[in-house]
Amino acid sequence: MIELENVAYSYGGGELLTDISLGLAPATFHFLTGPSGAGKSTLLKLCYGALRPTGGHVRLFDRDVTQMDRDAVAISRRRIGVVHQDCQFLDHLSVAENIALPLAVSGQDSADERANLRELLGWVGLTGRADALPPELSGGERQRAALARAVIMSPDVILADEPTGNVDWEMSQRLLQLLVELNRMGKTILIATHDLSLIRAAKQQVQARVLRISKRRLQLAGTDL
Amino acid sequence: MVLKGLMTSDAAADRVVPPSGYTARLTMFSAATMAFLAVFALALSLSAGRVAQEWGEALARSSTLRISAAPEELSAQTAAALRVLETTPGVEEARPLSAEEQQALLEPWFGPDLPVDTLPMPQLIDIVETPEGYDSDGLRLRLSAEVPGAVLDDHTRWRRPLVAAASRLRLLGWVSIGLIAAATGAMITLAANAALAANAKVITVLRLVGATDAYIAGAFVRRFTLRTLGGAALGTALAIGAILVLPDAGEAGGFLAGIGFQGWHWILPLVVPPLAALVALYATQAAAQRVLKELT
To answer: Is A74's CB within 8 Å of B13's CB?
Structure first.
């Protein structure tokens, strides 16, 4: 579904990532780890076409990103749910409207979809917060709302960038549980995190591949994790 | 396709751009002002065109024969001139002005009590031409032979600059309308650029969730177009109201009394709001495409 082949990415004259090859097969679970500034977020952005590689190839659903225009990338992104650490909401819209935003932009704002939205709000435990504005939410609520928005289009792949960065242990376990559930539904999950305890907790529940970015390159993490 | 997208109601798309009262009011005010000016420029241009045509037609079909002679010869020369005019092809009617009519012509300058009969006044003959007109050079030759004191004034001398001035005024009106449209486009572009730059985060979020450029641009284009349409409609209504209440200067007002719309011309100001909206649509779309490309 998402495939990176010998990808390099340079910015401001320096190379951030070198010779990265990665394939995200259906229903697989991956962690991407590494120190702060190693390039985890950059790699995730390459995976959903927000950045274009300066070398190698990124293929989204068998199409080379460099051959796609902005609209084609945007349409491909409807099959990829993205959860950011800072959530990226539109603060003037309610939680429900933010979660439904992918439906609105893809013209799928039907009655059925609204029913799914209510179900989804219940799944992430935000039924009572549907009309609240994003700034009124706690950190955990924001992350759950971001996850709900990422999955509302029933994407094939979910990419999460430090999804538990701003929440306590209990909430991070709850978010992890939601992501594991999604994986069991057949979704491919890639989580960028430096939270090793989260990785250990996940490995007790799913078979997860742990990748590490070190010295601009991607490698399989050791078995100590 | 653009218009279809504009007319299609998409409440969700409209709501993705945060409301901005200040920018909205400024855009509406600018659109209203520009529409107000455009309607006046239109009225000016149409009036000038109408006046140019009326003056041209009226003066083209009339001329004056002035007979200056000693009082004892004036009647004979007038009769001779009338005979010449009666046999001149292209002259529909020739009529000597009465003493009262000549006095009325001088009244604006000398007042109503002027004793015309005691003054050595020339006799004026009002000539109305047929649509084909007469040969003025031929008539002058005949008059010089038969009525030595006659001077033919076919109004050409002062008709041309008047008609030219009215035509220039009409052109100036149309140029003004063009400039107003261009200025409206420039203002909307600036406002749209500012709104797009201020909403960079909104654009980032929309792209993150899979919005195409057309969807993002559409949200801004719809908003600016509808604001402009509303503002221009208000400005047009005010301008029409102002024209309707312009004081009637009557015939003495000449050109000034003619500023406004007549007949089917009243439809033309109604074109101003949709035209302004069209300018806004294309200006915002161009701005959005440029900014979205830069934000890649």
So the answer is: no
